[in-house]
Amino acid sequence: MELQLRGITKRFPGVLANDDISLTARSGTVLALIGENGAGKSTLMNVLTGLYQADAGEILIDGQEQRFRGPADSIAAGIGMVHQHFMLVPVFSVYENVILGAEPTGRFGVLNRTQARAQVAEVSQRYGLAVDPDSLVEDLPVGIQQRVEIIKVLLRGARILIFDEPTAVLTPQEVQEFFGIVAELKSRGATIIFITHKLKEALAVADDITVLRDGRVVGHADPRTATPEDLAAMMVGRAIDLEVDKSPARPGSSVLSLRNVTVVDDRGRPVLHSISFDVHAGEIVGIAGIQGNGQTELVQAITGLLPVATGQIEFTGQDITRMSPRARHAAGMAHVPEDRSRMGFIASFSVKENLILDSYYAAPYAEGIRLVRNAIDTTATDLVDRYDVRPPTIDNAGSSLSGGNAQKMIVAREFSREVPLLVCAQPTRGIDVGSIEYIHEQIVRKRDEGVAVLIVSTELDEIFALADRILVMFSGEIVAERRTTDTTPPEIGLFMAGQRAAAS
Amino acid sequence: MSQPPQTPPPPDGDHDTLRPTPDVTQARDLRNSDRAVREAALRRERGLLARITTSVDWRSGLLIPLLSVLTALIVGGVIVMLAGVSLVDTLAAYRALLVGSVGSVKAVSETLTATTPLILTGLAVAIAFRAGLFNIGAEGQLLVGGMTAVLAGFTFTGLPLVIHLPLAVLAGVVGGAVWGFIPGFLKARTGAHEVIVTIMLNFIALRLVDFLLKTDVFQREGRNDPISKFVEPSAQLPLLLGWLDPAYRVHLGLILALIAAGFINWLLFRTTTGFEFRAVGANPSAARYAGMSVTRVYILVMVIAGGLAGLAGSGQVLGVLDRASPGFSASLGFDGIAVALLGRSNPWGVVAAAVLFGGLRAGGQQMQASVGVGIDLIAVIQALIIIFVAAPPLISAIYRLRAPSASTQISKGWAS
N or C: which terminal CB in chain B sees fewer CB atoms within 10 Å? Predict the structure, then answer.
């Protein structure tokens, strides 16, 4: 089925979320829709799936104009969405999840299990999506859970499939398998819309690429000829350098040293198991791994937010294992937290308050308990200027900043301190390409100044772009260590999936 | 707001988590088991908190409250008429309300007398709101503070006013602070929810007052009913307009309350302590990340809140009543919740809201006396004000205000 959008416009109070958007997804092809956060991708998809009604414009399927009054109309027209965050019931089996909401029933509404299982088996066979209908969803790896979502959508008769950031939660191997599934669906005539911000993936899998910026279509690209730089430039509106310029590291002495650090969760189960490594001055150590393999706990143990059960953490030669977060901060640790909005800043606080969020307690910002407003204003004005936070007004609420600018504000706060150690968790998650470029530059600059830098990222590209040395975490343990120059993304990908390295 | 006479026993599960266990790790496990549930509840609360403590613009800070008051007066009038009171009598009742609150020097004095404790209980609720806590316990904190102030007021004799009065006032602050410390400490140490603890402490304080007033220490000689000894003149708060007419009851407590409002404003917005309070209230995870001690903030803010409510108690017994009697708190602590809501948890907003509620209290008396429309109408109006303040989209819809944010969609639905 061919999907065509003509002049879709959607307005929210004060925002033109979609401005005259026209695009075509040809039958049996993959259309990649790329754009930064806030470019209007989600709004457009919500219009397509019937959640929003467009203020103007029309949706055509095979030339027929459609009118969606709600999600049911959209589903009936053959549109199916696979969400980034799966909508599955973990304790239900695969077939129960698939039929949920469209259960085949016999007389008196009795569930027909045999028929349900058969339906699921039939769809998974037809599209080569191998899944056991009877296994529990919570026991399945993420890649298989995604297949369940796809089967769900197919079973409801979808011929136009929308994937929202489908690879965000997958391992590199699972991404390859996913691309295989996409090719299979395509060969069976499905129309696929692939929403992503990963330019390389768009180029690898798409037949057509449409770029959105500020609610408008700013261009189309041919994946056979376009380069990631071309796409980035279209997304941002200016030329972007995706490669991080950096010279080889010249590591100095050890700044942070973990020895057999074990952390247990609320129920006493280990979430970090005997972790040992060092971070030296003037090097960037990257922690690779799929989300949820102990990276969060590792960072919190280092910064004092989680108690260490056994083992020892040394920082500039001092045992800090039992120190409070405040004492570690004062001792010279800077921390860009992984969850920007939950931890990194306070949305209702002004930009200037956020810029002193963790150093408000000491001079020059405080005299006794009195806040020194002049000093705060001076620092804040200087920081928004130096770190290019836009808009550069220090009295606006933090919530008024875009994701990228909020992150730049956090980076400004942490990087502006002259400290020996910088811990950055997911430093560029969910922010625009322009800000990513900027933050990467700052991280490398810090390294060159002799700061020890620890980066945690689930984006393998980011790890390879920044790190001098890579540690791979799996299930609360460090399973491999490699110099970046001695390894490849596929090798690290295998470790991320749990394969152990021979001692290196 | 009347209180049910009996408190339901706490459910077993809660009872277990509240009971101190010798084994610390076991207690921690119990707390963590329902952490998800509590966090979900917290998120819901935080939505409300954000709404009532976010930075105040003229629209949400002034226009909405004013329209809420106006609407509440109109709806309250309609309710009275539905109850069979004629339009003429209803208008007369409102006239009496106006006269009774601002119609004369005496009326203004009465309004300000009622305003004084409301400022302080309003602040006690507001400052806790700012730190993310629902202090429902201002009533109990006021009662305990009032009792300690009375005790200091009649126990010491022969002291000069400049020593005795500050001592008695301070005794009330300390009493309230102790009563506030309990829920703060329990929240910080065991995770006990401050709403439950403060409500229960209100009941305990209420009955404790009844009990204490029958003991030899407090009970007035020669009386069988529960009533305290008189406060010594050296511990009484001087009347501000006593030189005009001793019937003008407004007293020095008003000045203390205004100073307290100024102090809380300074504390919240100009000090590191207030920075921590507001950070913990807006986002406890970010506060922890920034190296703040969330538990220390919980304890400190509840001590300060209790102290403010205790000061309100001091003012009542040393400035208005000169003694303590059962239920002398007269719902001033509960009205403090409404005052804090209407004042958007901003100290000067609290003062303005307290003046309004003080006027309603004072004018309500006049209304009752001269027109015979029940004082209950005042409670209805107060409740309506709070409903409208708590649901700004409602007011925006009624007056077709253009909302700057998501509330448009709701108002569209209402208006079309």
Answer: C
Contact across the interface for B270 and A371, Cβ inside 8 Å:
yes
Nearest to A343 among B286, B403, B408 (CB): B286
Nearest CA in chain A to B31: A266
Instruction: Tell me if chain B has a CB within 8 Å of the CB of A329.
Output: yes
Q: Are residues A60 and A208 in the same domain?
A: yes
pLDDT tens string B25-45: 333 333 343 444 444 445 555
* CA A47 – CA B195 distance, rounded (Å): 43
pLDDT grade, residue A39 (50/70/90)? confident
Asked if A369 has any chain B CB less than 8 Å from its own CB, the reply is: yes
Enclosing domain of residue B235: 119-340
pLDDT computed for residue A323 by the predictor: 94
Cβ-based neighbours of A3, under 8 Å, separated by 6 or more: A24, A25, A48, A59, A60, A61, A79, A160, A191, A193
Distance from CA of A53 to the nearest CA of B (A): 13
Q: Do A369 and B273 touch (CB under 8 A)?
A: yes
Residue A122: CB atoms within 10 Å: 12
Cβ pairs bridging A and B (under 8 Å):
77
Q: From A187, A204, A236, give the residue that closes a domain.
A: A236
| From A29-33, A497-501, B56-60, B408-412, the region with the lowest mean pLDDT | B408-412
The domain of A288 spans 241-332+419-504
CB B189 within 8 A of CB B20: no
Q: Which residue has the higher pLDDT, B183 or B91?
A: B183
Among residues A236, A263, A280, which one ends one of the domains? A236
pLDDT confidence bin for A339, thresholds 50/70/90: confident
Return the pLDDT at A124. Answer: 85
Rounded CA gap, B250 and A244, in Å?
Answer: 71
Amino acid at A265: D
Say whether A342 and B286 touch across the interface (CB within 8 A). yes
Instruction: Give the chain B residue nearest A305 (alpha carbons).
Output: B289
B29 with A344: Cβ contact below 8 A: no
Residue A420 confidence (pLDDT): 95
- Structurally, chain B folds into a number of domains equal to 1
